[in-house]
Predict the structure.
Amino acid sequence: MKFKFILPSLAEAGTPWFRPIKYSLFPPLGLATLAAMLDPEDDAVLEDHHVMKPNLSDSPDVVVIQVYITNARRAYRLADHYRSLGAHVCLGGLHVTSLPDEAAAHADTIFLGPGDDTWRAFLHDLKTGKPADRYTAPARRSLDAVPTPRRDLIRRGLYLVPNSLVVTRGCPHHCDFCYKDAFFRGGNGFYTRRVDAALREIESLPGRHLYFLDDHLLGHERFARELFAGMEGMGRVFQAAGTVASVLRPGLIEAAARAGLRSLFVGFENLDENNLRDHGKVQNLGRHYNAAVRRLHDHGIMVNGSFVFGMDEDGPDVFDRTVDWAVEQGVETATFHIMTPYPGTALYQRMKEAGRMLHTDWERYDTRHTVFRPRHISPDALERGYHRAYRRFYQWRNLFRGAAAHTSVADGIRHFAYAAAWKKAEGLWRVLIRANQVTRALPLLERVLATGGKASPPTAEAGRGALGWTTKP
């Protein structure tokens, strides 16, 4: 059978000619993992519409489309097109799980929750002529039988970070603005791969740089420690995501740094503890943000801080206060968001019941537009403040200030080079993207990351002593 896996672009401008660099970072590993479960005689193609033009002239037997909230309209349009040609269309992903009835109108089969444990059941039913119209992830989920992604379907040269991988699913926390509880509803919401399997995949990847796309790589401490122990000596440098609480946990960041961690995405979200408490961000309560940043910098790890504007205690001063704090602490890069109540989340239900939702134009649920009525700021003022925060944080003056916050000259230089390359070289990124040469920047990224920390030199037996470990939650 002929299978086609599609990731529609997350924004209308997300085309090979106009997309920003953030849409050229990572390949769609979820779809590539489903493709790895096909029978050897099946044919498969994978289209990521962020990095390639859609091909609508083909005639696959089965089309699988991953649906996020901002690409839902494009996903449904593609689904309707292929159904009209007689293909069996499958829809899955965060948006499908949140609004299954909306998605079902455009599909022959929908998948609710993670598809790792239901995809094989669907394939069996499909080939016996009895595919169901809906598959729901079981309560007890596992990654033990999940294969590594079909990387042969991924055009590595189109991505800045082709060596991305995922070794856990979900997150142990329950923030009310996050999709996680809706997507993993009815079952375990955080689980890991076997450490030996994760290390084998790492060893199979070429080059030096890795990016863990896990929501919280440090979320299961024993797994993380054993993974990092197995990575020591591989000579890798990697980026990942973790929480303030995990950063402050004794010994964990040290182990990550020895394994090669050089940049961590940290969800600070907000500087007001009342806001954090309102949204169930309990893992940040009572945590000293300054100490977390200092601890990361002391181990040569850069900080990508995530911040959310528009919570109920936020006033018009929240934008400048947040930017000033991040710059003064030497946070290398910042990701700002307008609070967005996604359907299926507790926040959405709360806002809907209070009559505070403004519309259901899913294209604008992108954390750049205001889709609800804030308490102390007007919707327009929230959007203006969001854009002003980005401009202020990445002003040349503040890039220099942030770099000067480091005690090490080398770390200050790295700070400036990394932050400036990310936001001040957008014209160069466009040129590289249009020429399909974005991976030419990867050696520079590796060099910048490698200037921090104390990575162990690679050895012939790097990590092999850990291949028998089987840690699971």
In short: Residues 14-19, 454-473 have pLDDT under 50 and may be disordered. The chain is about 35% helix and 15% strand. The two ends are 37 Å apart (CA to CA).
